[in-house]
Amino acid sequence: MCIKYAANKCLGRTMNTNSLTFLNVILALVFVLECVGAGEPNPCIGYQCKKNQRCISNYGRPQCIALDLNCTKDEVVGDCGNVCEPTCADANGQKRECPALCGPPACVCKPNTYRYNGTCVSAKVCKQNGTDDNGGVTPCSRFPCPSGYQCSEGAVICTSDGCVTRPTQCVPESCPDILGCNNVTCPRNMERVTCYPLCELDCAGGDSCPGTQCNSLGRCVCKKGYVLVFRENRRLGCVKKNDCACTYDSN
């Protein structure tokens, strides 16, 4: 089961195991903890607001406020956000990863139209122009997130098996206290960040790729000026680039 996070309620639904990824699991965990409450209960759970409104906690009481979404004439408000909004990449048959989660409401293109360089176009235009200049990824500058969320910009990730597009999405800014994220101590020469690069450089050169990924759980990454040391596919830590020639023990 996964959790569907709507504008003002949490609902259970069955997850498509074909789209079960580490990203899905992490996001589902965060949303589950937000739904059941970490500390004070969420008064918005089960509280219904009118269309184009969302619920916030006002000193422990539910309150409906405007979504503050300025959609264009070619867009409508998507109740589950725009994580899986169709783009020209979809119209042209490009495989994209789509988390089986429902996010905060957002502006999306009207049915049977596709996102292309920030605008909504027909499938015919997609066929003529191909995918947009960033492979169907919506930049955070065109991806507003509601209060309490931050933008995690997507990217086109290519491997020997082909390329997939990780969509841009809104993720919670803060980590639930129950997880103790703020008490995490990173190893030497590393620091915990909530937005981190999709690919980290290592002593072997590594693979660089565009974009960052954000989530409230965060992760430990090398500090600026340091690179990863790997041995037998294990992360041993971070060292200065000039120290990569040294031999490191995994013990």
Explain what the structure shows.
- Strand 1 (2-5) and strand 2 (10-13) form a beta hairpin.
- The protein has helices spanning 22-36, 88-91, 123-129, and strands spanning 2-5, 10-13, 53-58, 61-66, 75-78, 106-109, 114-116, 119-121, 149-152, 155-159, 162-166, 169-172, 190-197, 212-222, 226-231, 234-240.
- The strands form 8 sheets. The chain has a two-stranded antiparallel sheet with strand order 1-2. It has a two-stranded antiparallel sheet with strand order 3-4. A two-stranded antiparallel sheet has the order 5-6.
- The protein is flat, with a radius of gyration of 20 Å.
- By secondary structure, it is mainly beta.
- It contains 3 helices and 16 strands.
- Mean pLDDT is 69; it is low at 1-40.
Which descriptors would you attach to this protein?
disordered N terminus; 10% helix; mainly beta; 251 residues; 3 helices; 33% strand; two-stranded antiparallel ribbon; two-stranded antiparallel sheet
Strand and helix layout:
Blueprint lengths: L1 E4 L4 E4 L8 H15 L16 E6 L2 E6 L8 E4 L9 H4 L14 E4 L4 E3 L2 E3 L1 H7 L19 E4 L2 E5 L2 E5 L2 E4 L17 E8 L14 E11 L3 E6 L2 E7 L11
Antiparallel strand pairs: 1-2, 3-4, 5-6, 7-8, 9-12, 10-11, 13-14, 15-16
InterPro entries: Ser_inhib-like_sf (IPR036084), TIL_dom (IPR002919)
Pfam families: TIL
Organism: Necator americanus
